[in-house]
Amino acid sequence: MLLLSVALFVNTLAAWQTQKVADLFERAKTAYESQNSEETVSLCRQIIQQCEQSYAEPECRYTNVMKNVYLYKGLSEFKIFNAEQDLDLLTEAISSLKKSYELYGDPNVVFNFGYMETLRAINLQNGNQLDGLVSSWDGILSMYANQEWTLDAELIKNLKIFVKQAVELTVTPADSAMTTGRFASFMVRQACDLAEQGHLKQEDRLFFNVYRKRAIEDNYNLRGNEWRARGFAAEQEFIKSPDDYTYRKTRSNLELALRFSKSIERQVEMLKELTKVALHMEKNSSDRLAETELLYAREKAAQAYNLLVERRPNITIELENEIKKVYGNSIFRLVDYYFSLADSTDRLNAYYKARRVGEELLVPDRKGGWKQKFKWDGYEELYLRLADVGYETGDEAFAVDMIDKAWKAALFAAKTSQTQLCGKVSEMNASNLILFVDVYQQIANRFGLQTVLHWLRPIRRCLVNRMNMYSNHY
Amino acid sequence: MKNNFLRNMMIMAGTFFLVSAGTGLRAQKIEASLEKLMVKYESKVIEVYQEMQALDRSAITHQERMAFDELLSGYTVRVLEIYKTLKLIKTFTLENYKTIAARALFFKALANIDVAAGDSKKFAAACDDYRHALSLTRGAKTSVLSQTLPYEIWIGDRLYTKLAELLDDQDKNRILLRCMHSSGNLQ
C-alpha cells in the first residue's frame, strides 16, 4: 500500500514537472506571435525533446501541431541569425524548415528554406551550392499554382528576391565561384518570364527588364555581366572623382568582367574600357606614375586591337572606332610622354624611345615611307609628334615623311583641301592647321627643302589672313 | 393547382439544365487551362534539357548540371500532376496527354543518366522513369520514340526531331535499354 502511494506521488510529481505538449505548443505559438524568438526556439526544442520519448503525447503525432513547431522554430532561429550572424543558427533554421516541409508541403516553407540555403551559400561565398535556388523555384511554382496561376504582389516580391539572390550567388569572388553562371542566368530568365505574365508596376517591369538583359548578354554570362555592370558604375564614379581608390575599384571590376567574358565582343569592350580608365587616371591624377598607367593603357588597347583584327568580332562601327581611338590615343600619349622627358633626361634616348613606341602603329606605305595602321580620331597628332621626333633626331626621311602625312591628315580632319584653304576655312581649323605648317616649315628649314618652303609660304599667309580676318571681325 | 405544379416543375428543370450547362462549361475551361499548362511545362522541360546540354562536361559544370537535373525533375513532376488531374476529371484520357507525360519522363530519364556518373540511385530512377514512360504510351499506333516531335531539339549543332534519335545519341551505353532487359517486361 505504501509502495503504491509512493509510486503515485512520483508519477504526479513528474507530470507536474513536465508540462503537456499542448500547453507548450500554445506558449510557443504566443511567443512566436509576440516575436519573442529566443523563447519560441526554447519552447519548440522542449516540445521536440518531449516528443522523442517513447510514450509521446498524441499532439506529437498531429501534423498540424508538429509542422508549426518546426516552422516557428526555424523562422525564429532565422530571426536570431539575422541579429547575431551566426551561420550555425542559419543551418539549424534550414533543417527545422525542411522538417516542417516534410510534414506538410507548404510552398511558402520550401521557398523560405531555399532562400536560406542560398543565403548561406552567399555568406560562405560558395557559388556552386545551387540547391537553394532549385528549392526556392519549386516554392515559387507551387505558390503560383496555388493561386490558380495568377501573380500577386507577394509572388512578385518573391520573384525579385529570387532574382537578386541568383545574381548575388553568381558574383561571389572568382576564386570561390565554381560555376559558369549558366544555371543562375537561366533561372533569372525563368523568373523574368514568369513575372512578365502578370501586371507589373513600372518599376517592377524595369527591374525584370534590366536583369533579363544582363542574363542574356554575352552568352548568358551572368557573372561577367554583373562585374561589367559594377565596373561601369564604378567608372562613372571614378570620372567624377578620379582618386586612387575609385580607380583601383573600377579597374578590378572591369578586369573581373574581362576575365569572365565569354565572347570576343565582350573582351574587346572591356579592354577598351580598361584603356580609357587608365588614360583618364594618367590625365587627371598626380599621385600615380604616368608611365605605368600609359604602358598599361597601351597594353590593353593593343590586346583589344589584335582581337579586332584576328578574331573579327561582331561589334558596332562605333565600338570599333572607339577601340581604334583609345589605341591610337594611348600610343600618342606615350610618345608624347617620352618626348617630354627629353628636356630633363638623356635626350636622344628619350626621342628614340618615343619613336619606338610610335612605330608600333606604323606599317610600310609601299612608297618607301610609313603610314599608320588605321585612321582614328586624332591620328594627325601622332604623325605631327613623330615628325618632331624625326626633326630632333636628325632623321630627314622620317621627319619629312611624317610631317607630310601629318599635314594631309590634318586637312582630312578639317574636312578641307589645300586648294580650298584660302577660301573657306574656319578660325579654329586655321589656327589648328597653322601648327602643322609651322612644324613643316621648321623641318624644311633644317633639312634645306627649298621647294617645300616655296610651296608652304602662300599657304601660311592664307591661314594667317583667315585668322586675322576672324579676329578683326570680332 | 395542377398549373402551379407544372410551372414549378418547368422552373426546376430549367434551373437544373442551366446549372449543369454552367458546370460543364466551367469544367471545360479548367481542362483547357490545364492542357495549356501541361504543354507549357513540357516546353520548360525541353528548355531545361537543352540548356543543360549546352554545358561542357567538366568538373566545373557538374554542380550546374545537377541543378538543371533537379529543375527538370520539378517540371516533369508538374506535368505528371496535371496528367493525373486530367485523368481524374475526364471520363477518358486523350492519347495526347499520355504522350506529353511520356515525353517529359523520357527527358527526365535522359537527364538522370546524364548526371548519374556511377550513382546507382540515379540510374535506378532513370530506369523507373523510362519504364513509366513506355507503359504510358503502350498501345499507341506509333511508338512515342518514333513519333516526330512537335518541336525541334537542338543539342550543339545537331537537330533532333525524334526521341529515338536523341536516345541513340545521348544514351550511348544503352543504359535505358538494359533497364528493360533487367526488369523482364513492361510495368
Written overview of the protein:
The complex is a heterodimer of chains A (about 475) and B (about 190). Chain A has about 475 residues and is an all-alpha fold. Chain A is about 75% helix and about 0% strand. Among the domains of chain A are: about 15-105, no CATH class; about 395-474, no CATH class. The model of chain A is unreliable at about 10-15 (pLDDT under 50). Chain B is mainly α and about 190 residues long. Chain B has one domain (about 40-185). Chain B is built from six helices and two strands. A two-stranded antiparallel ribbon of chain B has the order 1-2. In chain B, a hairpin with a 2-residue loop joins β1 (about 150-155) and β2. Chain B starts with a helix and ends with a helix. The interface of A and B includes residues 128, 133, 145 and 186 of A.
Provide tags for this entry.
heterodimer, A: 474 residues, mainly alpha, two-stranded antiparallel ribbon, 2 strands, 76% helix, elongated, B: 187 residues, two-stranded antiparallel sheet, 6 helices, 73% helix, 7% strand
Quick description:
The complex is a heterodimer of chains A (474) and B (187). Chain A is an all-alpha fold.
Mean pLDDT score of chain A, rounded? 89
Shape of chain B: elongated
Low-confidence stretches of chain A: 8-17
**Spatial gap, N to C terminus of chain A:** 128 Å
Order of helices and strands of chain A: HHHHHHHHHHHHHHHHEEHHHH
Strand order of the largest sheet of chain B: 1-2
> What would you report as the Rg of chain B, rounded to the nearest angstrom?
22 Å
Order of helices and strands of chain B: HHHHEEHH
> How would a textbook summarize the main sheet of chain A?
2 strands, antiparallel
**Estimated radius of gyration of chain A:** 36 Å
Which class best fits the helix and strand makeup of chain B?
mainly alpha
Could you estimate the helical fraction of the residues of chain A in percent? over 70%
Number of domains of chain B: 1
Q: What is the number of helical segments of chain B per DSSP (H or I, 4+ residues)?
A: 6
Largest interface: A-B, 19 and 18 residues
Distance between the termini of chain B: 64 Å
Number of strands of chain A: 2
Largest sheet report of chain B: 2 strands, antiparallel
Main-sheet strand order of chain A equals: 1-2
Low-confidence stretches of chain B: none
